[in-house]
Structure formats: structure tokens, C-alpha cells
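Possible race condition, two jobs.
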Amino acid sequence: QTYSISPDSNYHIKDVQVDNVSVGPVAEYMFSNVMSSHEINATFEADQTIITRTITASCEANGSILPTGLTNVTSGSDFTFNIAPITNYHIKDVQVDGVSVGAVSAYTFSNVTTDHTIMAFFDINTYLINASSAPNGSISPTGSVPVIHGDSQTFTITPDVGYQIGQLTVDGGIVAPTTSYSFSNVTSDHSISVNFV
């Protein structure tokens, strides 16, 4: 009866024992003229030079990528990186080997066979203030006005000749008429609208 011994990838045969006696790291063993029961055991160990690849991870300020720096990955395996912004920031883009993969919060390298790079970019949150006015006057700026987190934005309201501010509405609530209205320390979306009489 012949037995074949095969190691997994990146491993080699350490020893083969027959009836508790070593016969060396053989890939095949044959029992000849069998007259009784026998036992055969094979042991394996990792190659001293398992092939590894390097993934270099980095990011801009205001966020993190984990793990960061150089990571050695066994060739053929998978590896995942997690990306997270700090408070009041968001992921702007993630680039793998210099090519954008979008604003993802995690990225997995599958079946790694070459070296790679991954870099994350972050940007501060931006909010919109929707400003509108009825006829017979104007509000400036108008439309969807972007405001960076924590900044302020002032709107100037100007009635046409012969008109005055009728009703000024901010975030759905009526406020006292004024020709200048400011949103301070903006941390969310807002709206402002005005009509004239």
C-alpha cells in the first residue's frame, strides 16, 4: 500500500514516521508485504520564506485609516482597511494605487499578489442655506448657498422702491423684518425666505 504526502502552499514536509520511527521528509511511502497493522504520520512546517506583499496606507489630516503605514500581507490572502473621519468631517475620496474607489469607509484587497498603496482624503462638512424671495425685492446671496461647518453667512434683503419687507421666515419660523440676517456657527442646513408688501 502506497501513501502520498503533500504539503499545503507555503509549507513543506517536516517528517514522516512509520510505526513511530522517522523515515525522513518523504513525499511517498510504500508498505510492502504487509503482515500486520501499521501506522503512518506526517508533520508539516511553514517555509522559511513565505512570500509577502506590502500595502502602504496613508491619509490626510482630519481622519484615520487603520492600519496605517506599511502592512505585510501573505501573498494570495485578503486584507481590509477601515477609514473614518473625525467629527464634523467626511470622507472625500479613497484612492487605491492612485485610482479613486469613491468615498468608502472600508476597502478590501482581495487575493493580494503585488504591492499596493491606499490613501484616504477628508473634507470638512458643508451645509446648505436655501435663500429665496418673493417679487418686488431681493435677497443676496440667493439659491442654495454652501457654508462650511462653523462658519457664518449673512444675507442682505433689499425691497424695491415703494416696497418694504413683509414677512421674513427662517427655518420655518417668522422673525422680525430686517435688511440683514446672519446665520452664525452653522452646523446644519437652514432656510430663509422673504416677501415684500
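Job #2 (started ~2 s after job #1):
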Amino acid sequence: VNLVLTDAIKKGASDIHLEPYRGKVRLRYRIDGVLRHVDVPVAIRQLFPAILSRVKVLSNLNIMERRLPQDGRASVKVGDEKIDLRISVLPTPAGESIVIRILPNRMLMELKDLGFRPEDLEALQRMIKQPHGLLFVTGPTGSGKTTTLYGMLNTINTEQRKIITIEDPVEYEM
């Protein structure tokens, strides 16, 4: 588990997918929004139940439950960096599939650092300073929705304001 996490983080993955199939296990990393196949040894099929149990224990999930989806969280230290993980386990006909979302703390960025064109950044900053309203941020997995939303929250989060979000699940605590 540690080797997979370290390798995924080194390669810049935003999430890890471990998927059992008849007689094999597929490992994929999402890098720049695209799922990419990672070669794994044949022996990983025998290790998969232990990997699944380790991930469940890490994220305080019920290791005995195999028929219902489960979601959990974990924090791990990789090198000098603390990484938050969001784990989803989903039953499939061949066993339980695992998705580990990697949430590095360095992702809490300023809006100005996200690559918006100056006129778009100015318009967005004007909108989020309004006292009320609704703003939709949409896009495929790995497109930067969470990074953008937390950048906006980071911009308006001051001592003088009380900000409550209704996100589910909460990705970062500010």
C-alpha cells in the first residue's frame, strides 16, 4: 500500500484505482484527468485481500462488510509531506474495488495561481464577494473543481466572516 501511494504521488496522480477482475487486479492512476494503466506483478492478485484490508483499516472502514459501499478518510505521511486520503470501496461482481483520492495539503491555492485569464479572475473575484448567490462549478473528475472551490473559499475566508459549506464529502478543513 505504501509503495503504491508513494509511486502515485511521485507520478502526480490525483487518485488511485485498484479494481479486481476474474483472475487479475488492475491498477490505474488518474494523472492530469486521465486514468492511466500501471503494470502490477501477477502476485498482486494474491495480495489484493490484504491490500483491501489494510486500506479499510487505514480509513476506519468495516473490514467485514463486503456487500455495501463504504467511504472513509485517512492521513498518511509520505516523505516530509502529510497527505489526506479519501477512500471509497465499492462491491463489484469480482470483489471490492478501491478508489483512493489523494488530497495533498499544498492544493489549497490562491485563485491568482490557478491560471485564470485576468478578466475572468476579476469577474470571479467580484462574484464571490457578493453577500449571497449561487455559483456552479462543474467538470469531469480531476479537472480542478475542488481546487477552484477551495481557492474561492480561501479568498473570502476572514476573521470577520462566518462561512459554512454544504459539501459532501468535505475535502479539506480550513
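The chain has a mean pLDDT of 88.
Logs attached separately.
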